[in-house]
């Protein structure tokens, strides 16, 4: 098969693992920087050019689109779909999962457990917004933040008001969520491939922090998951339309609560902690599913 990994940096661990696994399995594999792609958008013969050459003959693409380039990266994936190249994660699913508000609304509509969440742009009625989510302690997030950046824990209503006022100066959208005390600075990252959880790890916040992101100094550990948690992770990925997903979940007194569904989950920590060869599972899934016209949206949506 001829496979393209859509990634800005061929030296990233996840990109390298996927690339090496493709080579080991005998595939013709290329790493393509989406920002260096340019497209001919036409109904008769859509095409993508890269470094002066036309990208042709690909059987599948594996998008690794960073949050900062979601708009253009998704457009490149969509163009491949228009050319009837199979994409492991489709453009509409990537865009859907990157919109935190939209993804939470979709999960809530399907009955997935979530922390009580408020959303606002104006901070004029911050008291009512805080009351909507049950009062302090609260977690406040900038909608565009990633990897724990722009996330603050407010212990009192007064502190929450101060943070909301500070966010106001950024002219940004704000998520206000109840703080799940019993999670105690821990969450679980589930790695979903197709209709299976192929790996899971518990992430624990570093000293003095409540954010469990490993990029923010958290640590990862093996974890035993429940059937309910496994089912919730798979359903969450399917609701987003993602075949490859990282689902972040809290354990609460009311059952599993999903925090986020990630369309480009990293491989390094979860492979190290679980001992699972997740890169192989991704390529095996691609081999089974990469067929002409298999992409459902074909560039629509």
Structure commentary:
The protein is globular. It has three domains: 2-96, Rossmann fold (3-Layer(aba) Sandwich), CATH 3.40.50.20; 117-179, ATP-grasp fold, A domain (Dna Ligase, domain 1); 182-284, D-amino Acid Aminotransferase, Chain A, domain 1, CATH 3.30.470.20. With 301 residues, the protein is α+β, with helices and mostly antiparallel strands. The protein is built from nine helices and 16 strands. It starts with a strand and ends in a 12-residue tail after the last helix.
Ordered list of secondary-structure elements with their pairings:
Elements: E1 2-6, H1 13-24, E2 28-32, E3 37-40, E4 47-50, E5 53-54, E6 60-63, H2 70-82, E7 86-87, H3 91-98, H4 100-109, E8 117-120, H5 126-132, E9 138-142, E10 151-154, H6 157-168, E11 174-178, E12 186-193, E13 196-204, E14 219-222, H7 227-240, E15 244-252, E16 255-262, H8 268-274, H9 278-289
Parallel strand pairs: 1-2, 1-6, 6-7
Antiparallel strand pairs: 3-4, 4-5, 8-11, 9-10, 9-11, 12-13, 12-15, 13-14, 15-16
